[in-house]
Design goal:
Blueprint (H helix, E strand, L loop, with lengths): L8 E7 L6 H5 L10 E4 L4 E4 L9 H13 L21 H10 L2 E7 L12 H19 L6 E6 L6 H13 L4 E3 L12 H10 L3 E3 L17 H22 L2 H4 L5 E3 L7 H15 L11 H8 E5 L3 H5 L9 E3 L13 H8 L5 H15 L6
Parallel strand pairs: 1-4, 4-5, 5-6, 6-7, 7-8, 8-9, 9-10
Antiparallel strand pairs: 2-3
Helix pairs in contact: 5-6
């Protein structure tokens, strides 16, 4: 189905970039003077959250793609201004036009700077910021609900009941999935009511790089930037997936579906075999106790996305082809827009057409109940 891209692909990992006035106009008056906002400094615009250092997110998350498009793939700097952001990052009509340009028929949407909301230390302030974000994204998706698929955020600084309430509300306002921090202690007993509620809601539970309780821009500043990107994108997802599989949460809640987003998939087969080997040799004393190998729960309950991962395609038979999903990562600099067709053609060389169709369309359509896109 749609292997040539003429009718479009489904991107299981795309992003918005929040407009400057999202929180300053929508937040409850109690928090209005602390609303997330953009601060223009000499070198770039920075995203500011109360209690956290300013973050130069806009260049990576929405602007530098313009230079990449104009310069045959090369980006000279990620220090940019919000006003230069590609309009499709926050204007739904411009977004649909960019989907058409890139042969994409639907996208599952994640935050831009809003990924940092999980790091906010003040629980009540975080809860209000997330409420505003979810409301705005719901409004954005209403422009084309068959093509714009929202993923809501859950507040996890405060009582777990707050997260449950927001998950239920997210489902009511049209979100097709929810997102939790990558560094959550999944097996902490306090989260058992949350897992029960999410299983009953039947919402996919996403984990995305940059969305962590620990502020991601402050930990790896003493290493080269290219290595920092690995530390910020692949390493947290490897750690998160391994802890999730070892936590027994998938075992205890077999109806939960987890999505490892944007961390790539080429490393997963090696990690799963390593975990299985340890389970085979040490399962009698490992805690929490797993009745099956970690890979069993991975194959049953974990989905994963990638944008440019030839290694992943070459090891796909060791994963679950029914749970792998391509994503364009629009409008990020490392994304495939507007050359997704060419990237897919490169990465999927030798992949049978039936499997290609699953990965670029069918798997995401089934997971998120996307019809008629």
């Amino acid at each position: 189905m749609h292997t040539n891209g003429e009718k479009g692909y489904i991107s299981a990992d795309s992003h918005i970039y929040e407009p400057d006035d999202m929180w300053t106009t929508r937040m409850d008056k109690r928090f209005r003077d602390r609303a997330p906002h953009t601060q223009a400094l000499n070198d770039a615009d920075y995203f500011c959250l109360d209690g956290l250092p300013p973050a130069p997110t806009v260049g990576i998350l929405g602007v530098a793609i313009q230079e990449k498009m104009a310069g045959e793939g090369e980006v000279t700097s990620v220090l940019r201004r919000n006003q230069d952001c590609r309009p499709g990052a926050w204007d739904p009509q411009a977004r649909l036009a960019d989907q058409d340009l890139d042969h994409v028929r639907a996208e599952v949407l994640y935050p831009g700077a809003g990924l940092l909301l999980f790091s906010i230390p003040d629980a009540e302030y975080q809860r209000e910021c997330i409420r505003v974000y979810n409301d705005w994204l719901s409004d954005f998706c209403k422009a084309a609900p068959k093509r714009l698929i929202g993923t809501g955020l859950l507040p996890l600084r405060g009582p777990v009941e707050w997260a449950i309430t927001e998950a239920e509300r997210a489902a009511r306002i049209g979100m097709r999935g929810v997102m939790i921090p990558t560094d959550l202690v999944f097996h902490d007993p306090q989260y058992q009511p949350l897992w029960t509620a999410l299983q009953e809601l039947n919402l996919p539970v996403a984990l995305h790089p940059g969305g962590a309780l620990q502020f991601p821009f402050g930990e790896f500043t003493n290493i080269p930037t290219n290595a920092w990107v690995v530390e910020n994108k692949i390493t947290p997802m490897l750690r998160s997936l391994s802890i999730l599989l070892a936590s027994a949460v998938p075992q205890q809640y077999p109806g939960l579906r987890f999505v490892i987003v944007e961390g790539g998939i080429g490393w997963m087969a090696a990690m799963l075999r390593f975990m299985d080997h340890w389970w085979e040799d040490h399962r009698k004393w490992l805690q929490p106790k797993l009745d099956e190998k970690p890979s069993y729960y991975f194959h049953r309950q974990v989905w994963a996305t990638f944008e440019d991962d030839r290694a992943g395609m070459q090891t796909r038979d060791l994963l679950n082809v029914d749970h792998l999903m391509w994503g364009s990562d629009y409008p990020h600099t490392e994304g495939t827009f507007p050359r997704s067709q060419q990237q897919i053609a490169h990465d999927f060389v030798g992949v049978p057409e039936t499997e290609l169709c699953k990965i670029v369309w069918d798997n995401a359509a089934q997971l998120y109940a996307i019809t008629g896109a």
